[in-house]
Amino acid sequence: MAKHHVTATLNGSPVEFLCETQQTLLEVLRDELNLTGTKEGCATGDCGACSVTVGGRLVCSCLVLGAEVEGKRIETIEGMASGTELHPLQQKFLEHAALQCGICTPGMLIAARSLLERKPDPTEEEVRYWLAGNLCRCTGYNKIVDAVLAAAGEMRRA
Amino acid sequence: MADTVLYPERELKVVGTQPVRPDGVPKVTGLAQYGADFTLPGMLWGRILRSPHAHARIRAINTKKAEALPGVKAVITAADLPEQKFDYVGPERVAINFWHMTRNILAREKVLYEGHALAAVAATSKSIAEEALKLIEVDYEVLPHVIDVDEAMQPDAPLLFEDMITRGVQPPPTKPSNVSKRIEFKLGDVDKGFAAADEIVEASYKTKPVHQGYIEPHACLARFDTDGQAEVWSSSQGHFVVRTFTSRLVGMKVGDLRCHAAEIGGAFGGKTVVYVEPIAVVLSKKSGHPVKIMMSREEVFKASGPTSGASMTIKLGVMRDGRIVAAEGIFKYQAGAFPTSPVMNGCMCSFAPYDIANVRTIGYDVVCNRPKTVAYRAPGSPISAFAAESTMDLAARRIGMDPIEFRLKNIARPGSQTVWGAKLAHAGFAETLHALQKHPGYKAPLGKNQGRGVAAGYWFNGGGESSATVHVNEDGTVVVAEGSPDIGGSRASIALMAAETLGIPYENVRPIVADTNSVGYTQATGGSRVTYATGMTVINACNKVIDEMCVRAAKLWKVERADVIWEDGHARPAGKRAGEFEPLSFKAIAAKRTATGGPITASAAMNAEGQAPGFSAQFCDVEVDPDTGYVKILRYVAAQDVGRAIHPGYCEGQIHGGVVQGIGWALNEEYIYDRNGRMENPGFLDYRIPVASDVPMIEAIMVEVPNPNHPYGVKGVAEANIVPPTATIANAVHSATGLRLTDLPMSPPKVLAALDSARKR
């Protein structure tokens, strides 16, 4: 079957790609567009490692088909820093040792940014429930929660 | 190294600070390359065909239709791998048998578990590879299977290996069984000990296999060139292990295989073996193209990991004053489809925290129709500790003693005898218990349906073989090339120790995990060995660099080498030449390398000994919902002897992470099988690891009792923390409900059933 031709906006720039019908947005990002910062942990929407935003909405890119993003605005981890300036969340994750292996980190950061866009002053409990869809097996979540709360504080002051 | 060196305490400038890790930025920007993130021109996608049956004889495999599918470039089966000799090799605790290993990579005579690999394809796209798997025809003769360890030990159980005679029994049994091995450790006279005891407490326990649960599935990229040389990029705890195993399984010279350590997305012991690497190499060899293989999450659950489930009985003899006079443990561990579970570790670690005169532990290594078990964080110890530390709690209750006091009364100290013969050589256990006892929460009042539990745990920690090379750059910066894949921040701890030793800023040290052709042999990252052993190797290499810097300074000053000392990152004239010249900085000497003899570089390699064991003691508060059986963790406090925290943030992180994995093990995680021996929960939705909203902030107490055998006092920190949680929580549930739960996990239905049956009584 012929591939689909899709045009979209990716991290602020126009992008076009061809994809098979069954290819997920995750596969398109990784295999067709060489953006491997978005990770596959389960491909069933259970781990959050592939979190991106589509049209401003937080999604698991493994649950979205490539063909579905025609005309949409996609944001991935590769677009999080502004040039060489890290996003406060990225900076706080580093300062708080909030990553060990780092495989969940891109998804965590994207999900946390989505939270702070909606709720600039979350409680610890709100952070924990918002990030409940993003699995981390290394950190026990302490330092991730600390880093998100610290970044929220800094962003409010900015 | 036969003798260990005792290092005096010293003032530290860099060690103990918390800088950003050297590999941090690429990991927060998405640019770090993990196992699945590598590509090569002309690359194909590999996929693996797996058994739908728990146990079946393979009558025939027909790959012709798959080979004929356009886009398919290679199809392989076990016939493409050389046969291996049946032989257990290596130290007994971690013995390997390549006859088994090759059959786990690709099944030969039989498939032994659902998910067992038996063929693989390489094709130009993922979808073609997937399509090709459906065209491979396998003729199975389905056989009866066995999942549970107690059932697998029954005389009429279906046999996985029709000729398996239990090792370690004299005289050897005449009939085959699923018991691969029996082991026994003895100290003193347990029968006498029990006869003298005021009280005897005995209980039996069961645990389920749990998966390491790393978020990154196994993945690799392989390229095999027609001259017989190959390269592999893979997510592994040991790229030298990948080289050893893959070259052996594929049948190539070690020197022809170059392995690169990709960034690794979690492992916890589960990536100390190979699954996809030999298959990718053979597919590449057969197709003439590079091949990438990524496991799916379902494959990870069904065909990699987990650690053993077990059936155990513990008996303790205690005096009314709290002294334990006899301890006995019987441990039956599932090995999975092939022999070698961590039962030997279980036998050794179960009572290791305590000084007990009379101990006997007996272990059985049992095969069953499940995936072959692999190391999982302190392999074997958390399983036996669940049983031993639950029974410790019962014993403390029986004599009416505080559980920390009871443990302190019996705690092992330097000189205490272990059941395996060695004497404990290090302090730190009692200190850790004292630190836990002092936590203000330990005496805090509890509410309705709430309870508090205590447990402790032991892990050996590791030394072993490591190599490193330090290169001094012309601007005074340094590259440290070492061979230990970094799974939790070890590049940070290595750079801190190198900077401390050289007397230069942390930011001037750039550590890398070098490939197998760029640094000497280094054992896998595991056993909490890296910061200790690889760290010590790097320190040795740095000391050689310092010596060379002094030689260069002597040349510049035209003085004897003996008249130069190294102090605070500078060469200084000393002895009869003291004060004659301005000190030369590291940077100044580095800039003069060409004029003073050329490149400045030093290597070190060692088989490190003298590691100190890990010990953790923990308490937690839980609330048990009487209507649902849900156990909520209200507070969790974990004290651990870390020796010296090199990077306190990552050190603490190890404690948080180990505890939360233990919470999952205690409350949720288990392999669930249907009656056909098929796993019913091979995904993160149904195999539920803890999520952020399940747990509170874990309170870590780092106790620092330095290891005198390491220049900076390091003890391993990664594993001891996962040993106590299951019993800690079970003991807390007992305190909350009056009920002793002896089966893991303590999931809501199980807790509710226990509450209901107590209510009926």
Topology:
The complex is a heterodimer of chains A (158) and B (761).
Chain A: E1 4-10, E2 13-19, H1 25-32, E3 51-54, E4 57-60, E5 73-75, H2 88-95, H3 105-118, H4 124-130, H5 142-157
Chain B: H1 24-29, E1 44-50, E2 56-62, H2 64-68, E3 72-77, E4 88-89, E5 96-97, H3 98-105, E6 110-111, E7 117-123, H4 126-134, E8 137-142, H5 149-152, E9 179-187, H6 190-196, E10 199-207, E11 219-224, E12 230-234, H7 239-250, E13 257-261, H8 277-287, E14 291-294, H9 297-303, E15 310-318, E16 324-336, H10 343-349, E17 359-367, H11 381-399, H12 403-410, H13 429-437, E18 450-459, E19 464-472, E20 478-482, H14 490-502, E21 509-513, H15 530-557, E22 564-567, E23 570-573, E24 584-585, H16 586-591, H17 593-596, E25 600-608, E26 614-624, E27 631-641, H18 648-667, E28 698-703, H19 725-737, H20 748-760
Parallel strand pairs in B: 1-14, 12-13, 16-17, 20-21, 27-28
Antiparallel strand pairs in B: 1-7, 2-6, 2-8, 3-7, 4-5, 9-17, 10-15, 11-12, 11-14, 15-16, 18-26, 19-20, 19-25, 22-23, 23-24, 26-27
Describe the structure.
The complex is a heterodimer of chains A (158) and B (761). Chain A is an alpha+beta fold. Chain A has 5 helices and 5 strands; from the N terminus they run ββαβββαααα. Chain A is 34% helix and 16% strand. In chain A, helix 2 crosses helix 5 (142-157). Chain A starts with a strand and ends with a helix. The model of chain A has no long low-confidence stretch (mean pLDDT 97). With 761 residues, chain B is an alpha+beta fold. Chain B is 27% helix and 24% strand. Chain B is built from 20 helices and 28 strands. Chain B is globular and about 90 Å long. Chain B starts with 23 loop residues before the first helix and ends with a helix. The mean pLDDT of chain B is 97. At the A-B interface, helix 1, helix 2, helix 3, helix 4 and helix 5 of A face helix 1 and helix 18 of B.
